[in-house]
Batch of 3 targets.
Target 1
Amino acid sequence: MKKSVVMSLCVVALLLMLSACGNSAMNQAGGSDEGEGNGSSSDDTIKIGTILPFSGVYASLGKDLSAGMKLYFESVDWKAGGKKIELIEEDTAADPQEALRRTRKLMDQDQVDMLTGAVSTAVAYAIRDEVNSNQLPYLASHAGGNDLTRGERSDYIWRSSFSSWQLGNSMGQWAYENVGDQIYVAAADYAFGKEVSAAFMEAYRAAGGEVVGEVYPPLGNNDYASYLTTIADSEADGVYAFFAGSDAVRFVQQFEEYGLKEKFDLLGSGWLVSEDLRESIGSAAEGIYAASFWDYNLENEQNQKFVEAYEAAYDRRPTVESLEGYDAARIIVETIEALDGDVSDPDKVIEAMSAVEFDSPRGPFAFDQETHHVIQNMYILETVTENGRTENKVIEKIEGVQDPGE
Amino acid sequence: MEIIIAQLINGVSYGMLLFVITCGLALVFGILGVLNLAHGSLYMIGSYVAYSLTTTFTQSFWTALIVAPLAVAVIALVIERTLLRVTYQLGHLSQVLLTFGLAYVFHDLTKWIWGSNVLSIRVPDLLSGSVTIVGQTFPLYRLVVIGVGIIIAAGLWWIQNKTRWGAIIRAGLSDREMIGALGVNINLVFTTIFVLGGILAGFGGVVASPILGLYPDMEFQTLILALIVLVIGGLGSIAGTFTASVLVGVLETFGRYLFPELSMFLIFGLMAMILVWRPSGLLGKQVVEG
């Protein structure tokens, strides 16, 4: 009797592990269609399909991307090229299989004219072939895996967000010049974390620096004490860390609690100190250097407009994901405008999309015609304390960072 | 040498954190024989209530430390009285299904109330300092958690072994009908234990969240950790849970230090070995269920 209880316990534990790993435990059964506009599928409506995680661990990212898109569509009154825009949102729960099903539904049932979204790179890879073979114009608005605009490149896939390489590479030279010639690398053990830190190390070594240690805690690790004690024992000048979400909150807080902040500079990607995490992180974020392609405090006219409109509409600060959604919506609208509303030929849509250039809140925006990936400025941020709360301050601009595409 | 001692302290403090998280589950399973898969959810509710209390209403961690477990206790009381009681006759499977279903309900409810952002609870100023031992800096709060774990363990042991209540509980575990025939209100005993389990879960939520944070799906991660400790320690034994917590904490910490790539494997390897070598866990009781 007792034995069977133990066994069933193990089975339950195993099932939980599996469901947690796949992030699919929380899939919503129904769809989450939120057709804006009037939903009539006549010729005067252009349908935009969106695949984003509205449940699971990336839910807050999906929510912000969606909010950013809607803000822009709202600003053009849901119209472009003389036609109505209809947005059809599907919840992927960041699960590749689920995303593929939802993408097929958008293609077959809703017959969308364009597709956008994907937070998880695994999702973007999972739908890549389907999108490619069906010639559906797809604007990747978050997923940053390098290969999507390298080996997995497709005529129909363009990316407006960032690549892992852009994030990691932009910090390498700067870190060598401003932090020191010895660095310790700590990154979450998953594709994105490894890609970004690899790009960083490549650039850092090329600049002349030495990586004195590397450690890759599992994704969703809850206690960094052991890693931090090991790092504290090293002779590095700084620590380059790639963590996001709850991992970032814990890592940054524990980095300070274990006294590493006094010994090392902490640097990483913008997600270490992103707009929606810093309040949770508290004062431990102060003094961190991060690389990103946008920040709340970026000073330009477009950003000021964007931030004001976003705060007026949602009563909270935009995050980098909000900006990604906002820009993606703008690219879609400008593409439709350029075609005077005729989106029936996917090749023409792609041609028009590739030519879209504008001043984004992040700075000048243009696509690389070769890689289909955005060329953009990268910014080095420093987190400082102002009026009792932490703010990111832009301390350096690296202009026109272009992914090498191979 | 110094780094070994430092890692040992890290391990013990992580282990105690695991114990604080697990003890409520172990208590309920050991005495009621109910595998409460909503344990992680009760833990999560404790965390979120504490978050609301510390950020909006009172700003006081200490108030939250008392109020949040009580709020969870009320929920546990309602669950036991209305839903769980019915399943005592039906066996493990229906209890597992019921509590797992509840976990999903609580998941959506908390998401609805508190959203899906990553949140955290500040350590109170009194405990936010650092201590330097063997040349390494440790957060004072971690050391306090070690103390809290030891106090809870001692308290539970004392209640179970040295008080009349403990005697009734142990008797009820061996023979439910007989203890009822002797004039003890066994239903009351069961309700009390389940509520106590809820209080411990909520308390664990408040104590652990300054370290582990609050985020979507946190309850399932917590539940997995708690189940691993429970299986290794042996069912129905507070001493076993305590030993297993420290063992898992120390092993995982040294695993991360010595073989960072293998740290997860080590824990599951340990679990598999224990199951082969001692199927009822390290210190599991050999009691046959009635």
Note: The domain at 165-292+379-401 of chain A is CATH 3.40.50.2300 (Rossmann fold).
Target 2
Amino acid sequence: MGLTRKYWKGIEELKETPEFIKHKEQEFPSQQTIEQFLADDNLAETSTARRDFLKFLGFSVAAATLAACEAPVTKAVPYVVKPENVTPGMPTWYASTYYDGNSYASILVKTREGRPIFIKGNHEFGFTKGGTNPQIVASVLGLYDSERLTGPKANKKDASLSSVDKEISSAIKSAKKVTLFSSTVISPSLNRAITEMATALNGEGGSKFEHIQYDAVSYSAMREANNKNFGAPIIPGYDFSKAKTIVSLDADFLSSWLLPTEFAVQYGQTRIPGDNMSKHFQFESVMTVTGSNADYRGMAKPSELAGILAYLIKGLGGKSGVDASVPSGSKLAADEALKALKKSGKDSLVVCGSNNVGLQILTNKLNNQLKAYGNTIDLTNTIELFKGDDTKVQKLVKDVISGKGPDVLLMYGVNPVYTLPNGEEFGKALSNITTVSFASHADETASLCKYICPDHHALEGWNDYKAKANQYAVAQPTIRPLHNTVSALESLLVWNGKAQRGGKDSAVAYDYIAATFAATITSGDFAFTTHNSCSDLVVVPSALSYSDASASKFPKGGDLEVVFYQKAGIGIGAHANNPWLQELPDPITKVTWDNYITMNPVTMEKDGYVTTYDQEHGLNTATVTVNGKSVTLPVYPMPGQAIGTIGIALGYGRGANGEKIGKAAYQTKEYGGHDLGENGKPKAIGANVFGFVSTANGTYEYANVAKISKAEGTYPIAATQIHHTVMGRHSIVRETTLDIFNNRDKEAYNPAHMLEKLNKEGHHEERPVSEFDLWDAHPVEKIGHRWGMTIDLSSCIGCGTCLVACQVENNVPVVGKDEVRRGREMHWLRIDRYFSTEEEAAIGTKKDKDNFSYDKAEHAAENPKVVHMPMLCHHCNHAPCETVCPVAATTHSNEGLNQMAYNRCIGTRYCANNCPYKVRRFNWFNYPSYKKFVEVNPAQDDLGRMVLNPDVTVRTRGVMEKCSLCVQRIQATKLVAKKEARVVADGEFATACSDACPTNAIVVGDWNDIKSNIRKSSEDKRAYQALEEVGVKPNIWYKVKVRNEENNDLNKLQVAEAKVEHKKAHH
Amino acid sequence: MQKEAAIREPLILGHKTYHDITEDVCRPIEDKAPKMWYILFGIALVIGLYGVGAICYLLGTGIGVWGLNKTIGWAWDITNFVWWVGIGHAGTLISAVLLLFRQKWRMAINRSAEAMTIFAVFMAGTFPLIHMGRLWVGYWTLPLPNQFGSLWVNFNSPLLWDVFAISTYLSVSLVFWYIGLIPDFATIRDRAKKPVAKKMYSILSFGWSGRAKHWNRFELVSLVLAGLATPLVFSVHSIVSFDFATSVIPGWHTTIFPPYFVAGAVFSGFAMVQTLLLIMRKAMGLEAYIHTKHVEYMNIVIMVTGSIVGTAYITELFISWYSGVEYEAYAFLNRATGPYWWAYWSMMTCNVISPQLMWIRKLRRSLLFTFFISIVVNIGMWFERYVIIVTSLHRDYLPSAWSMHFPSHIDIAVYIGTIGLFFVFFLLFARFFPVLALNEVKTILKGSGQSYKESPDYHEHH
């Protein structure tokens, strides 16, 4: 049978139409050439008429335009071969050690994809126990400074390393006298290399080579005094954690004196209210971080400190040979101190920050009287920092200036042209000799040197340190050197002919340090030590014993004494180019980007200076004259400044001749660009006052007698806080005394806010505000996590480390002075500082509720008490910001976080207005690209951008941002736990701020975990929520500030009021 | 035709005929514009363009060009917004509420008052737009279907309610105004000689033929729209006040706000009407239609609403003390005695004291005095919003965040610019649109016209 079925593809085929037959063989329609197509006369009659064409054209243009609005494409190059230790997205942590000649700490460095991006304290290893300071945390940015020298220089021109090496080696060889002028070298390896060089150059008994150590802020007097009292120029170890009574005279041991990274941690341990709480007395002129934390603070001129010491010595039954007169501003504190010292005896510690030998001898005498040696003061485990000898330094400087100096001067870790009182003369004399600098920048000194052999950044090279006698610490590189810099240790070895250059991946320093280690710790494992960053050393117990020495030559007094101090951020000015530190508000004044003259507002009002300032109204300026030199600066009203004294911070006025020390080190104009001075060079920030340092008593003393005269004009001040008192608002700050805390109920000092409501019987009843709720509760209780935080106002010392850590962690933009002045700093975490007033019994507690004067409450007391209150997003469970956002850009997570969706934000700022804590920050400009921020914002620099945390979005213009409680860290912690199939452990998650806090004032964790520290801490009887009565139900608690003092006013209020309340409750 | 008591002052002065009314209203449109118009228009245009330039700079650079800061997130922007919205209240109140209350004197003023309303709402609407950090995604405030997943607007937010309130108000006002214009456009169309003008006005008049059916529909639509617009008069400013009232900021968080804001809005709206009309009646020769009696009526409204506002101020002060809430009490103490005391006392003087002078008949019938007070009231009402917004924000809960607000020159430029633009629109309106509802005015000529009231015919019937 034939094929009966017929298959067809279409009706045309079935019916075999002529059309179909015609095209049957042709699978595709005929191909027309373009010429044929265009030649077609019918073309003009096609359906696309002119108008349609215009429509198409219009649409295409519009579509193309819209498509062009997309953000520019930036390319990321992936790893082709994955490096062994780098997993994209996973951080690698390195244990290391930080030392810059001034600060020291054991640290952990976080690297991402090979870039170090974060530094935090090492809590597990090293005697600093996690303590850091703002400068250490911020120092990571220095690595990415685009003005860092990229290689050796000779005569201000780039030079090859080999030629520089050759020239320097031969200069050293042919010189008559070679001096190494360095900051204190605590590196055992570097010291060994220096000794080797000395041996090689001096031979037997020669004196061709000399090593002179110089500290910009010197502690020479301490060593000299100890030499007189103990026969050895040591600085003993101090243990503040053992001290029941701490008396400090001008020593800012929590922020700048000696070893604050260790002391702040120890101090924090003694500030937990209870039976072991220490009593802290401070006598000082400028209010320092330490002074602001004192239980009693006396105001005294530098010249009056001897009298106070003598008074205490006399009170304890000793003889000092000095007139025991106490200034009126210190009378109460001195009397109380005497009482406390008598009570605590050997559990006392007296420290003095003055670099005056006489004062240090009196301090030693007092400590000896108290039997503090061997108890709070450790003569065995000495502090090896600050070995500079002022006498030797002064001789060297004199020799150089007079032309009798060495032929070759090697300068390591010092910037004498900037830090010497006669730096300018010293700088001029440098041209006469062969000078070699190891500086990272062509700074004030290095720019005048013949050769610059820039050392690695601290995060690029190997180093070892011995900051205290019993600990050997290692610093390891966390990144391959970015530039052609060379290790200073290697350079010394090469110039001494002991080593050959090893190129970019040189192992010279490593091998040498490993050898030093092997020689020091015979049984040690260097790799293991490197892993932990440190290893203990055995020390022989000290055989030193105290013998009396006579004290004389105390600081000279005058009608007006000026004191030079260090600010938490800028210190001695080594990090002046670090915009994070420049923008870190001073812990006391809250001023950024400037130094100024501090003066007590009482004096200022008398002398006709303005005492208030805001965005548009600056402060009066004044000229301070010391020994014929003068400087003009704004006068800042600093309550607590001793009458008859003024203070000026060191570390400012860096790069006054336009040296290239970093873009952020100079003043900028309103619309960006450096502000140029009359000499065409960028204007320095603030003024350098190292020139005013006194040398009258042989040592460098950071105080002097001065004259001041009011100058013309006002100067704009960029401060993050322009109102300084809490106006008696008890729901913000709560304070009590140790006595009340120990002996009274919570109700006395931390009462809940009560509201009236009707009970079942229809009677009015007072109930705590926490029981009232306008809203349905967010389902965060008892379900999953609920992240929370407590901040202890008793242990917070206001140092500012958390603030910088937050800024680094969260890519918080730097906005520069002009924007800070306008009240637009971007810090997610700020530290509110409140001064007490005459209207308050304690900060936040009105003396007399009925006759409270708001006017008077705006003015701080003459010598006020201080509360530091870190303020950040409270992650309210009934967040007022969330309800008002029209587009739901800020919402609540089911873990209790108030989260910001930057992409969704349209920038109405309603949320910020409605935030009772005013913690939301708006992107007023495009900080990562707008011209105004080129100099200050690291995100605008190709190199500086490397420091950004890839886990955190860089925010664009027009969106709101705020603290996220480090949500990226929460997610990372949860992921780790999830991979290991377990719940998140308590203490596993830490925010950048809680991690950085040296005193553990900040506790974070999962509040739903009922055994967690945060839960316990939040249920503590000191815990309260700021502005509880607003009803926003925050996830942040504060803990009442407890001061170890007698306070009759407060006693009356808190004890008496509690009684009344008690009675009420019984009714 | 309604008759009214002869002792009532006539609403149309002089011996006007129907034709006179047509002539009086149409003449300015048909004649060449006077030199003064060009001068004023030029000035307004320059100022307006300056404002537009400032807005462009703002949009190109960021909100930072204003004087705002971390504490004060709104200042001149929202002050101006509320001020303009407030001004935009009089028009609808006059045309809708007074229509429902059969107040015939409104007929002389409702057209320009409504025009003013619409232009004021335009100006007001500018500010919420440009105050956004990211204007280009501002459309996210509309509940549009989207591809962002289940992302929706936040119906809890008063700002969202604002979006609905303002856009509804604007569209209803616009329609209402336009409906009223149709018969008048037809009159101009019929008189127009130039072909372009004739074409334009014939388009604008929607083919109005003046048939009884048209008039019937016209009346009905007007009544329906008046019914719709009346609640809007009260809702718009109530909702604007919710922006503040629903917040937690002392000085904002106030239940008294909705009625207080509405009264204030009517207060400032009428003042603006006075300012504009007193000039316009002179410039366009409309003294016969808008005269002392009209001004007096409006002054009475100003007096009444001003008294409500004054009462609200004093109530706020009392409650802040009586509540015993520390922050509330301080917010108001700070307003009166803090760094912005001058703004507070300017507000009090302008808004509380000045309207009380209207109790004196001689003053409220004085055109010069009225003009002066109308300016004073608008200054005062601007300060009211500034005081509410800035003094509440600048010192709220935490003293550490307390700050001050200083306007930048861009703040000032944008504000002045909107005033310029407003006058550009208003001058164009005065030049090309019938500024008086001429067909409506004709309906009262027989009842309230002077010549009819004086005619013996009129007295016979009564």
Note: Chain A has a mean pLDDT of 91.
Target 3
Amino acid sequence: MQTEKLLKQLFKKIAPIYQTYGLNSQKSLCERFFKAEEKITHKTSVALLKHMILRHKVRFAREDLISGNTTRVDDESFEMSIKDYAKKMNKVSLKNNGILSKNLSKEDRKREYDKAKEQFRGMRITEALKILRCNRLIKKVDNQYSLNEELWSKGVVYRIRHSPTLASLSNLMFSYIKNEAYLGPNDFFEETDKIISAVIKPSIKHNQVFQREFYIAQQIENGGTVYIQEGKFKIEVFPHAVEIGEAGKYFRYEEAKSTKMGEASLNLVILPNQ
Amino acid sequence: MKKNLEEKNGVEKITYEEVCEEVLLSLMDEKMSKVAPSLSKEELIKEFNKLKNMILKSSGDFEVKRDQLIQEYKRQDLYDESTDPKVIAQRNLIDAKSNSPVQSSSNDKKINFGF
């Protein structure tokens, strides 16, 4: 009974390891390469970058990001546990601050802890602002921070202006740039340019199948079927994905009757009005 | 073995709970390693819960490995026995005995009953 109780407690404790890493050995491996502190810094920088992208027209003062009503950054990476704080600030100063003092009332202790948490958020945000500036992702003018947008579009043909899409790229963007000191946002967007053009170009090149591609994409989204011409026969298939191969675009499918998987050129698709 | 004298600096010893955690992690890793790399996050959580219930239902495997590891740490003088539930239970029993009122002998009882 005692063992079961302890096991339950331990399972609760180790569950986040398996949710994040899949295996404890994987966690140990990762920690050998990336220090925990580095990971936190990465997370906070990405969270701040996302926050600024989604409000890209705004110029932020540091204090606004820390405590502003509408511009305050809220992300779990800015949160801290009392344990983290104790580690960072050392337990003695924490005791001196009264947070761990047993003489304090519950309310007072909570207030002290909240105050410490806010201090910690401020520290993290200040740190993240420095990192983002160092990586030229943001700039500081007259004590106000904003995205370094001219660098984001420099040398770019296919510019992404959709903020939610840009925000979803922020982790990728930050990871790419921070690896090499000389890389800037324009280097990242030159890479996305290549990807976008690789996706767009084949549809221009194979314009005659554009209608078919659109039809297949629609059916994939709706979970519908399409007919392909195979010799004299018409075969009903569930399209799964349109992919780009060496010879251009093709699509993968599953036959409706036999569930056999296959690939076919877009040219073979029969449009509904044909 | 995960911990050694150097890490523990020869002062702080390994507690019973730390031993249990180490055994549990290795047991879970042993089972999860077969499936984890190919699973999505949702599937991973499901698998974790499935294995958790399996271990909770039949903790024999866990207990054998735990006892083995305790022996190993004891041999290296790394085990903090004061945290072991068996030792705690024994100590409590001794304390309870030593604190209980002195029992009278059977002869005394006879005399007392007589008056």
Note: Residues 34-195 of chain A form one domain.
